Every structure is written in C-alpha cells, then in structure tokens.
TrEMBL record:
CDD domains recorded: HDc
Annotated Pfam families: DUF3391, HD_5
Upper taxonomic lineage: Bacteria, Pseudomonadati, Pseudomonadota, Gammaproteobacteria, Pseudomonadales
Designated name of the protein: HDIG domain-containing protein
Origin: domain of life: Bacteria
Residues in HD-GYP domain copies: 157-355
SUPFAM superfamilies documented for this protein: HD-domain/PDEase-like
Coiled-coil features, chain-numbered ranges: none
GO molecular-function terms, A-Z: phosphoric diester hydrolase activity
Length: 429
C-alpha cells in the first residue's frame, strides 16, 4: 500500500529516462551487466563509482569479495537476468516497512521546544567533540579510556535527548568532514539513547546503550590518520584496514578492564548484518545481540547522512527510505521500525514537497502521526519562487495539505537548508 493512502508521501522510483532497473542478488551478477547502484551505504564498499558496465572479471571478483548482498542493474544498458525485483516491487516492500512504523505511532513527546534545546545542544556538541577527541587521542597513544568521563558525557547527552529527542541528534548530523570520526561517535550515542527509549529499555540499559554508541568506533584510532582522513575513496588494502577497526576497538576496551561486555559487543559487532554478510564474524539473525543490532542501524543512519571528504551526505528522509529498502538484509525489522519512530519518516532537516506545491524543511515531529510533521515552508515549486517563511502544522491541515514527496536540496540548489530549522549554517564538505 503506498504511503500516499495514509496522507503521506509516495516513495519515488529512482528509475529515469529509458532505464529499466532491477534489483538482483549478488549471486546473479554477470559480466556484461550495467551496475546502476549498490544496495547499501557507500562506506561499506571500496568502489569509486556505482554506475558502470561490468566488463572486467577482476571487478566482478572485487564486488563478490566486498560483502555487498544485492545491487541494482539497468537492463536497458546491459545484460538482463531472469527473476530479480522491479522498482515497483521493491517500492511496495519499502512502503510496507515504513507503514509498520506509521500504523503504531508512539513518538515520545519533547519536554522542551526544539528552539530551546538547539541552543543548549550546540554547546553540548562543542563540548562533546572536544571530549571525544581527547579520549580517542589518548586511546591512540595507548592510554586507558576514562570510564568516569564517558559516563558523565553520556548522562549529559541523555539529558538533552530526554528534553528533546531531535535537537542534538540533528545538530550532530551537521558535522564537517574533518571532524567526522569524533562527532559520529556523539551522534551514534544520541541515536542509541533515543532508540533505547523507544524500545522502552530500563534507565540502566539506556545509559549502557549511550556508552556503546560513544565508544563503538574507538578502534579507528588504530588506523593511520592518512587513511582515516583520506580525502577520497580508499584502496582495497586501505579498506581492509578500516574493516579491522571493530577488533582493534575491542582490544582497546578489553585492555581498559572497566567497560561492560555489552559495550564491547557493540564495538565488535556493529557492522554485522542480519543476513550474515557483515563483518568481522558474519553473524546472522539472533546471533547478533539486541544492542549490536541497534548499533548497526544508528551507525549507518549517521554515516549516510553525514558529509565525507569525497561525498556529500544524503538527505535524512532519503536515508530513511534507503535503509528501509536494505532492511531485509541489513537490519532487524523490529529495531529498524523503532528507529523510524524515534527519528521520524521525515526526520528534522528533511526537505519535502507538499501537495500545495510548496517546499519546506521539517522542523518538528508530530506525536501522533509520523506523516504530519511541522514544516517551515519557504519555496513554491510550481512558480519557482521564494515564499515568506511560514511554519505549517500538517496535523492541523488534514485534507487540505500533506507531504507528497521527498526532495533533494542539491538538485534545487539550496545550500543553507539546515539554517531553516537550526539557525546553524551547514559545514563545508
């Protein structure tokens, strides 16, 4: 059932022109096929490009070795294969996953306005970045993790998430490319806390989830800086070194002797996938702990919405749609649905088109409907003109206006879209 039947957006096909797209399993990939897109985050494979005619057997082997489970081919530009899934079939499955979150809305109400918490969260982001940078640099020098400092930082982040679940999470997404490693840890910490709340875990478990999020990537301190901060795609060998970071982080945390087994498990297994194609141990299904399954979702979301030296992050709403598309192979369904409830189908900062033709940025979730957030409209797509900025509460406009699609800020040429909800300019790529 399309989302439009519930007053929300219809998911766009990414087929265009004469392209005929089909999603196939990796086992079906053959020389002569035209690869349109890999299914999964660009951070999970070492390829510079995602659209090309597969002609070289070495490229085929590299793809098979990468852990990619599925990909899209364009049968108008290369060989076809029996079976596979069409865009419409995948769209129906993706819609169903998002509707599963919509039909049981339980958005946790904020205790403060977004504007109030953004001001506090800005200071906390700055403090957290410095603290995590120092902590990780100490780890690089072989010093033990300061568990007491970690605990206090997680409590501060938890307090912010409790006051408003979207302020710090959305601000942390605006990190610049050169501070990615540190602010990614802060963002995943906040996302883990929000998800743990949504799953109705205990206060002690929420704290542990936050610690796990903050420390999940500490193993990246074992990677040479020139590889970690390389302003471009990695070579195969560099990519393999990066893939060693879960084990490196586990070794660091075990040496500390004050970090719980739960936190260590998330560090080691947040790159495992539900279908068994992840790393380092290719765990599948229930072999992956609940907290590691949570870590996988939170880690991917922040990664694909963040700017990197070689690629601009995806729009938050587009990222949720992509993750729903990958969910059957990458994520636990129940955990992913809870995650969608915690951040929204159209997370804060998403650019959306309304039925009225207006474009706006999401500034607040609605407690009762993930499809009817508050939106700050500023542009008329039909007349291609700017409008006086106005906040529209779609929950009060049922039957009169609604979201009908996600939009790409880059395609519209909107460079300062994040200022519309946060008052903070987007960092340079």
């Amino acid at each position: 059932m399309p989302l439009g039947h519930h007053g929300g957006a219809t998911i766009r096909s990414f087929s265009s022109g004469a392209s005929v797209l089909k999603r196939i399993a990796l086992t079906e990939l053959r020389i002569g096929m035209f690869i349109h897109e890999f299914s999964g985050s660009w951070m999970e494979h070492p390829f510079w490009k995602s659209r090309f005619l597969l002609e070289n057997p070495k490229d085929l082997q590299r793809i098979r070795d990468s852990g990619i489970g599925e990909l899209w081919i364009d049968t108008a530009k290369g060989l076809d294969v029996p079976g596979g899934q069409t865009v419409d079939e995948v769209k129906a499955q993706t819609d169903a996953r998002l509707l599963a979150a919509v039909t049981t809305p339980t958005v946790l109400p904020p205790r403060a306005s977004l504007e109030e918490e953004v001001a506090r969260a800005q200071k906390l982001c700055s403090h957290s970045r410095r603290a995590v940078m120092e902590m990780f640099q100490d780890a690089r020098m072989g010093q033990a993790v300061n568990v007491e400092q970690v605990g206090q930082l997680v409590r501060d982040i938890t307090a912010s998430v409790m006051r408003h679940p979207h302020a710090l999470i959305s601000l942390a997404r605006l990190k610049s490319a050169d501070e990615y490693t540190y602010m990614h840890s802060v963002a995943v910490c906040a996302l883990m806390i929000a998800l743990a709340r949504q799953l109705e875990l205990s206060d002690a478990q929420i704290q542990e989830a936050g610690v796990a999020g903050l420390l999940h990537d500490i193993g990246k301190m074992a990677i040479p800086s020139e590889v970690l901060n390389k302003p471009g795609k990695l070579t195969d060998e560099e990519f393999r070194r990066v893939c060693d970071h879960p084990q490196a982080g586990t070794d660091i945390l075990l040496e500390c002797k004050q970090v719980s087994a739960l936190v260590i498990d998330v560090c080691l297994h947040h790159h495992e996938k539900i279908d068994g194609t992840g790393y380092p141990h290719r765990l599948a299904g229930d072999q992956i702990s609940l907290f590691a399954r949570m870590g996988a979702v939170c880690d991917v979301y922040d990664a694909i919405t963040s700017n990197r030296p070689y690629k601009r992050g995806w729009d938050p709403a587009e990222s949720i749609r992509k993750m729903a598309e990958w969910c059957h192979r990458h994520f636990d369904e129940a955990v992913f649905q809870a995650f969608v409830k915690s951040v929204g189908i159209y997370p804060v900062g998403s650019l959306v088109r309304l039925d009225s033709g207006r474009l706006g940025v999401v500034i607040e979730q609605n407690e009762k409907s993930l499809l009817s957030p508050r939106v700050r409209v500023f542009f008329n797509a039909r007349t291609n003109t700017h409008l006086a900025r106005e906040v529209v509460d779609l929950a009060k406009l049922v039957g009169r206006d609604k979201i009908v699609g996600r939009e790409s800020p880059a395609q519209w040429g909107f460079r300062d879209i994040d200022e519309l909800w946060s008052g903070v300019a987007s960092p340079a790529l």
